[in-house]
């Protein structure tokens, strides 16, 4: 979390706001926008922009008109127009930067469907809003039991209550089309409220619920990622990754969005590499592509008749052989190019400083081998042997 005013408990839950993503300081929610125009005054005669950005649960945001010209700022809790009744949200952005956000979300400033802000939320509004939010977990549990009893093939991922407590939005995921008319009747009769069903994708569900990825950090979709681009298996192929679905899939069950992050740099690096279906024609026979190292610029080829022995070449050497083949010429052998590469590596690996050739270990302490201590038994045995040998020599001399 980026919030500095909320301390965290042992379980990782912030103690200040008691909820990830709904901090009153405005620092815990998804994709905060820093208002760098807040301290700048408007030109003479220009009125402040009358549309504000309001944040709701799980990073959901909307634009609302300030027709009553209320003095609101970032972090204020306000009551906004909804259908039916009103909803409670937190002001996330005001001023001229709202125009930029509306242009980014492709919302016209002159759109008549933009709802309005009623008032700043009173203590009674916040109390009703808090009570409604506390009901969400219990309503979600009971709703899942109703869905399983009706035998519907859908998964209820989240429930969001409206600020006045008269309406609830049920977010679900499903592979096929679901007839939930009977479900709406039972939910409305059981909880005595207006029900709205909204289907979301698997990635949207992961963004709403959040979690920790395989990298050890929070999910990108729940922290900063707003647009979900399509990810294909070709992105993994270009990056020389093994097509293992358990490693390539995220918590949503789809391919990880991070596969697209470095794809452009890999595509640029692969422009200089030869195509994998091109064979190298040599005097010893044709050579087939085996693998490549994009970062170091190395390519491995093996003869078609002997695919076990691989020969390492650089991209420049491979392109030279391809140019020779285009001119109807054959290279002598892959071994010559591999020997040139090994000679270059040995030359560049030699160490020499500006003063002279010095050893890297010249300041290290010399290591002495520790002598093994002989045991007392070995000493006694040696003494007895020496004594017996001396005794025999004396007897020989006397005889």
Mean pLDDT: 81
* Low-pLDDT sequence parts: 17-22
Give the SSE string.
EEEEHEHHEEHEHHHHHEEEEHHH
| Lateral strand order in the biggest sheet | 2-1-4-3-5
| DSSP, total strands | 12
Give me the secondary-structure category. Answer: alpha+beta
Q: Helical stretch count?
A: 12
| Assembly classification | single chain
- The separation of the N and C termini measures 100 Å
User: Roughly what fraction of the amino acids lie in strands?
Assistant: 15-25%
- Rg of Cα set: 37 Å
Biggest sheet statistics: 5 strands, antiparallel
Q: In one word, what is the shape?
A: elongated
- Helix fraction, binned, reads 25-40%
Tags for this entry?
five-stranded antiparallel beta sheet, four-stranded antiparallel beta sheet, 17% strand, GMP Synthetase, Chain A, domain 3, 399 residues, alpha+beta
Describe the protein in words.
This protein has 399 residues and is α+β, with helices and mostly antiparallel strands. Among the domains are: 51-121, no CATH class; 131-200, K homology (KH) domain (GMP Synthetase, Chain A, domain 3), CATH 3.30.300; 207-269, no CATH class; 280-348, no CATH class. Helices cover 32% and strands 17% of the residues. The protein contains 12 helices and 12 strands. The protein has helices spanning 97-104, 123-134, 136-150, 181-191, 202-209, 220-223, 233-238, 245-248, 263-269, 315-326, 334-349, 376-398; strands at 51-55, 61-65, 77-81, 86-93, 117-120, 155-161, 167-173, 194-199, 280-282, 285-293, 298-303, 311-314. The strands form 3 sheets. A 5-stranded antiparallel beta sheet has the order 2-1-4-3-5. The chain has a 4-stranded antiparallel beta sheet with strand order 9-10-11-12. Helix 3 crosses helix 4 (181-191). The longest helix is centred in the C-terminal third of the chain and has 23 residues, at 376-398. The chain is elongated.
